[in-house]
């Protein structure tokens, strides 16, 4: 399917055709006016509060070519506090036990440690050899860089004459398993001009991914990486340099030929598995081991935020309020009839939902188990108004005999992503039957549900795009959970089980998110508040591990650090760095903070 | 209409993964007014908390008027939509979002208590569709270029 892209017809013509088709199928309003879902679930009773512009539905936008107004005022954007980091590293170890500082960071990361380790490598030795080591590595990196090709050749590091001459034991050789030198190299490489595009680390005898753990941090824009002929064995090794959750990495090509992790899988006839697991960990990959990766892409330029940056957003409020359910371009009754019937059957007779799906239709669900921040602040999970919340359990949702949650941020492997996608009515209801029993109160308070729905043209077909938010009670405990359900519907095809079973529409795709309960007040129409728009600023509360680390700091420094935290909102680690960089002068530190605060990343703060 | 091949599911999953990383990085970046609309086309239809957004200009206006954001994706799921070739994708994302917290406009006004001070839960549903007129940035690439055809976002907690 993906490999044989068929050019779609030009959108305008096909959309007209599709609209006509759908109108004749009774799916679209003839007058295209938006209707409200006047009856349950989710439609609001009483007079419609809709304003004029909402009735215009979604007009086709005229032309995208509106003049691009890139803001001329660009700021040089410093990612970190501009304190003297190298001085800090040596001082910080005399100030407090570095371990407790690490533990104090709100989210201690490998990178954070590496960053400090990398610096310490070059600073904790005596001063004469310290300069030498850094300079040797700098000379090495510059000698190995081909600026024209933007290629950094780090092959056979151990054989390099510069290192031999200065008697430096390179990473990878027996007796040196430390990843520090590599982090130093990556850090030096990050300052090369023009920016490094390709690195080859071939033939370095690396038997651990730890050597590469500094790579995503120092060289996030690297495109090509060769690790040919090394000793990488496990997925853990690979995960040392794959992008962290939610983070983008720009690696387009990787070579792992000559590493056990690849060669063993190939030998065992599991090449597809190996490639899937690699591309799953590097979603940006286009070429693996010199073979193209089948993938889809997005017409978005890769991040250039390190060089050019815009002004930070200035708005302090939302320009639009929370609006009620939005249904347009389709008879509200089609939506409400479908949802009422669907949820009633889902609660009472899941097997009979099979007919609403086609043999190719898809269903999966994801469980999000964490208690939402606002729900926790409202104590909803312990509220006496919701006495059954403590009886709820996640395990039946996370995994069951038909598979389990398909939260793609938490998949254990490619097989799971395949097995937990259920295809065809029969398999789908089997998967649904393995889920706990539910009660959706579709005839109760319509404010507990919220629906956004409209038709979307795809070539010659017109599909219905529906997003439903609401809550259900889980039997037998009758604790309440929140859910989101997204459907893609199409007019029930002639002769399909859906048509025969009197469904107006057939379900093509059905995705369910089950979440820990949040109040339906979240989508109550009205103005939306911004988290930080309040004016009260109470004392900052430190997380327990940070409090412990603070107490470990000797006086009078402890009081100074606490004062900085309270006045700036910096976390302990950055508060200490800020004071270090300003000679333990609180006023100077605050002034320094004020001058750089707009350039700080959120992880500097509590 | 044929059933989905494993490789299609695999490609769709990775595509969605990459999309989500790129999309929310762009959303949370300082140049979001420029970068975010690039995921959309003039014909895309989208709603923000039940408000229909009119075209790319509407989207720009929306983000220009929005405090800075920080999204933390807790879950996502993706299906190739059956019967479409190359397949469009249905992607549903849920996570937490903070507005304005790291903005420089009101650094002293970060309340630490109260419900309104807490991150929200958002759920966003996308239909991603291959672009028949893929832009000619790298025309030799055999890849299919996708854009956001439909997008419904709600704060849900």
From TrEMBL, chain A:
GO-annotated cellular components: nucleus
Location in or out of the cell: Nucleus
An individual GO BP term: poly(A)+ mRNA export from nucleus
Region (Disordered): 1-55
Every TAP-C domain range: 555-606
InterPro entries from the UniProt entry: LRR_dom_sf, NTF2-like_dom_sf, NTF2_dom, Nuclear_transport_factor_2_euk, NXF1/2/3/5-like_LRR, NXF_fam, TAP_C_dom, UBA-like_sf
The entry's keywords: Leucine-rich repeat, mRNA transport, Nucleus, Repeat, Transport
Lineage of the organism: Eukaryota, Fungi, Dikarya, Basidiomycota, Agaricomycotina
One MF term in the entry's GO annotations: RNA binding
Keyword set includes Nucleus: yes
Highest taxon listed in the record's lineage: Eukaryota
Residues annotated as transmembrane: none
Basic and acidic residues bias (residue ranges): 28-42
Location (main, coarse): nucleus
Domain NTF2, residue spans: 334-514
Organism: Rickenella mellea
Coiled coil location: none
Basic residues composition-biased segments: 46-55
Name listed for the protein in its UniProt record: NTF2-like protein
Keyword Protein transport on entry: no
Family classification: Belongs to the NXF family.
TrEMBL record, chain B:
CDD domains: NTF2
Pfam family, one: NTF2
Domain NTF2: 15-155
InterPro entries noted in UniProt: NTF2 (IPR045875), NTF2-like_dom_sf (IPR032710), NTF2_dom (IPR002075), Nuclear_transport_factor_2_euk (IPR018222)
Listed SUPFAM superfamilies: NTF2-like
Protein's GO biological process: nucleocytoplasmic transport
Highest rank taxon of the organism: Eukaryota
The protein's name in its UniProt record: NTF2-like protein
Organism field: Rickenella mellea
